[in-house]
């Protein structure tokens, strides 16, 4: 029987950023080849273990029988803690503006489906985070790309304003950015443009606590933006809780109320033991987090310095996240060619920059939240790969 799928799913394809991971697992399984994993958007190694007080909080609830429904936008103590967190960022927040979600992806999915109608336009960063675009299109809305100018990947404010039309409803910001780790500057000027054109903003701030110099800034701290910004964050990156699948939304009260209904009509609630673990993470000792951030900073410096010693590669130090986004155009290969070359010939898994949009051409994304020995082995293999590549392309000198 031929199944007729919903029109909104016509553009569903396997995520490009997961292709490198799938291929790496395939090579490891079939060939027994050791792969250096720079492709994963996750933590690996003993530097990034879950603090015991977080897991103990979840276990305690399970042992006490906390395995039933708990309908609503989240348990009050957790929502209050999140409200305090957002208030500390400069956006005064009340508990009823907070919705606890099944991770940041769930928060983005809910927000887009709640706000968008067919024909609406959403300004989407290029390069950007692919799942956002999937759900924009699912709603029948149109993603309008706002190119970010390399190497610092900042918005060209004139070009940003040029792509706004009467149909534009929403601007998606991500800071620090995926995939390049850059912090978005000019928030005040971006806010002026949003106010001028009456735009809503979704501010994706999942790496808010992994900023290496200075403090994280949210556009919602600008008073005029408070009531037109939806902030999305997660416990995944800050507290190495990627598998727990818990995040949150802070939004103006009318939007938060709609999102709360959406949540209860979809997943009902995030599991109570997961919410209690998140509460322990947010309100408990923060020393492990700071140790993790310092470890990432050290790895970043080591990784970027090593990349910049390789001919044909240039890499700015990311200001946040645990991703490097080196320019590999000096190798003479496209992003996908370089990705395939590293994987197939040298066993190094990275993600092509074009998995995140056309402006990612000439770049690859690499994760440095891995053990130090993995960084050293990966850099060694990449250097060998590039040197061999450039040697093959070098013109042969004729003997006299």
Question: How would you summarize this macromolecular structure in one to three sentences?
Answer:
The chain has about 400 residues and is an alpha/beta fold. The chain has twelve helices and 13 strands. It starts with 15 loop residues before the first helix and ends in a 7-residue tail after the last helix.
Q: Rg to the nearest angstrom?
A: 22 Å
Structural class designation: alpha/beta
What level of helicity do the residues show?
A: 40-55%
What gross morphology would you assign? globular
Average pLDDT over all residues:
94
How are the strands ordered across the major sheet? Answer: 2-9-8-7-6-3-4-5
Low-confidence stretches: 396-400
Query: How many β strands by DSSP?
Result: 13
Strand content: 5-15%
What's the helix count?
12
Largest sheet: 8 strands, mixed
- For the terminal residues, how far apart are their CA atoms? 73 Å
Written as H for each helix and E for each strand, in order along the chain, the element string is HEHHEHEHEEHEHEEEHHHEHEEEH
In words, what does this structure look like?
This protein is α/β, with parallel strands linked by helices and 400 residues long. It has twelve helices and 13 strands. The chain has helices at residues 16-31, 52-63, 76-88, 104-115, 130-138, 157-162, 187-196, 253-266, 272-283, 287-308, 335-346, 372-393; strands at 36-37, 98-101, 121-126, 142-149, 154-155, 168-174, 200-204, 229-234, 247-250, 323-324, 348-349, 351-352, 364-367. Strands 2-9-8-7-6-3-4-5 form an eight-stranded mixed sheet, sandwiched between helices. A three-stranded antiparallel sheet has the order 10-13-12. α10 runs parallel beside α12. The longest helix is centred in the last third of the chain and has 22 residues, at 287-308.
């Amino acid at each position: 029987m031929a199944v007729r799928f919903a029109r909104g799913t016509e553009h569903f394809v396997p995520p490009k950023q997961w292709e490198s991971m799938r291929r790496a697992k395939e090579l490891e399984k079939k060939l027994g080849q050791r792969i250096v994993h720079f492709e994963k958007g996750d933590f690996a190694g003993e530097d990034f273990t879950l603090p015991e007080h977080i897991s103990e909080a979840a276990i305690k609830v399970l042992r006490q029988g906390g395995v039933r429904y708990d309908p609503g936008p989240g348990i009050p103590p957790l929502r209050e803690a999140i409200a305090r967190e957002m208030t500390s960022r400069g956006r005064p927040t009340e508990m009823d503006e907070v919705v606890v979600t099944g991770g940041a992806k769930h928060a983005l999915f809910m927000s887009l489906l709640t706000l968008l109608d067919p024909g609406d336009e959403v300004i989407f960063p290029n390069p950007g985070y692919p799942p956002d675009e999937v759900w924009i299109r699912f709603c029948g809305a149109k993603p309008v790309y706002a190119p970010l100018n390399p190497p610092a990947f900042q918005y060209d404010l004139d070009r940003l304003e040029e792509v706004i039309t009467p149909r534009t409803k929403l601007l998606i910001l991500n800071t620090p950015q995926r995939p390049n780790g850059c912090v978005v500057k000019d928030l005040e000027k971006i806010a002026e443009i949003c106010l001028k054109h009456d735009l809503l903003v979704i501010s994706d701030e999942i790496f808010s606590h992994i900023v290496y110099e200075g403090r994280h800034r949210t556009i919602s701290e600008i008073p005029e933006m408070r009531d037109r910004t939806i902030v999305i964050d997660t416990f995944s990156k800050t507290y190495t809780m990627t598998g727990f699948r818990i995040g949150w939304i802070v939004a103006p009260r009318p939007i938060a109320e709609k999102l709360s209904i959406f949540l209860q009509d979809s997943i009902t609630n995030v599991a109570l033991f997961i919410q209690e673990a998140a509460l322990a993470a947010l309100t408990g000792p923060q020393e492990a987090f700071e140790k993790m951030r310092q470890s990432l900073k050290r790895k970043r410096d080591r990784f970027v310095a090593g990349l910049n010693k390789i001919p044909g590669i240039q890499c700015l130090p990311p200001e946040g996240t645990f991703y490097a986004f080196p320019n590999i155009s000096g190798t003479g290969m496209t992003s996908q060619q370089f990705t395939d070359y590293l994987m197939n010939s040298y066993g190094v898994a990275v993600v092509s920059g074009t998995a995140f949009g056309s402006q990612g051409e000439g770049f690859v994304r690499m994760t440095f939240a891995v053990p130090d020995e993995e960084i050293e082995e990966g850099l060694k293999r990449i250097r060998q790969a590039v040197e061999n590549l450039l040697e093959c392309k070098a013109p042969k000198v004729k003997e006299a």
